[in-house]
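A reminder from the course coordinator: this example appears on the midterm review sheet, so study it carefully.

Given structure:
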């Protein structure tokens, strides 16, 4: 199957997943929206690796829906206070080039942000890769990201 059909299937399934999630709760928080979208993309990419022809469209759509659902559930559990602590830790870790640990005693969730590599990108900006390990209900999830230093000295997440 070509890339256009895969992209269309993922987009359709993502819109469906967001619609279902919004109807279920009335409206989604930022954490739920980010979780839903992130899960949909990851699930769709995983699903697109299987099947062929119409089967590939189906596995992409199913992967997108399942990923959106799982991401939405995670987003619901990861509240605004957790998101704030996690974002602050990422910002401090990237700007200081040191590992930063955070926790939220109210939710019991915690995380660790570890810068892994600093380099100059093709535009001459200083960029830094990092891993962010989050523990929710005893389960660890690892995300990877990249931030680059802007002209004003601030760091901006680029991936």
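Designed residues:
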């Amino acid at each position: 199957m070509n890339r256009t059909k895969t992209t269309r299937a993922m987009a359709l399934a993502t819109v469906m997943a967001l619609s279902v999630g919004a109807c279920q709760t009335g409206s989604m928080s930022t954490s739920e929206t980010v979780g839903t979208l992130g899960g949909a993309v990851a699930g769709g990419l995983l699903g697109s690796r299987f099947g062929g022809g119409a089967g590939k469209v189906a596995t992409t759509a199913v992967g997108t829906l399942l990923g959106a659902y799982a991401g939405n559930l995670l987003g619901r559990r990861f509240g605004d206070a957790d998101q704030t602590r996690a974002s602050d830790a990422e910002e401090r870790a990237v700007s200081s080039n040191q590992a930063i640990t955070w926790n939220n005693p109210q939710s019991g969730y915690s995380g660790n942000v570890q810068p892994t590599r600093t380099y100059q990108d093709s535009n001459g900006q200083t960029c830094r890769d990092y891993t962010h390990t989050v523990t929710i209900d005893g389960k660890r999830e690892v995300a990877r990201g990249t931030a680059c230093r802007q002209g004003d000295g601030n760091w901006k997440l680029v991936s």
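The chain has four helices and five strands. Helices lie at 3-25, 30-47, 54-77, 80-96.
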